[in-house]
């Protein structure tokens, strides 16, 4: 759904049909997913007559990007420490031989 909305705004019906075609998700399940995305601040909706139009909420996506960047920074430190320990273990094994 997020990828579909990255291209352009879509109606709930369009999104429901897209996820049904690709993943076999029912219309009620698609509606629940849209509600969760809306409550999480990732999408917005507006009423246009009898249709509900969804769009991405750029601010919500930016928050996720910042969160991922923080996690990536933590992983970088952890992976560097792991790399050091692997090198230390290899060195110790060579010295024992």
UniProtKB/TrEMBL annotation:
One of its GO terms (molecular function) is DNA binding. The keyword Disulfide bond does not apply. The keyword Transcription regulation applies. InterPro entries: ArsR-like_HTH, HTH_ArsR_DNA-bd_dom, HTH_MetalResp_TranReg, WH-like_DNA-bd_sf, WH_DNA-bd_sf. Keywords: DNA-binding, Transcription, Transcription regulation. Residues 1-76 form the HTH arsR-type domain. It comes from the Bacteria. PANTHER family: TRANSCRIPTIONAL REGULATOR, ARSR FAMILY, TRANSCRIPTIONAL REPRESSOR SDPR. This is ArsR family transcriptional regulator. It comes from Amycolatopsis antarctica.
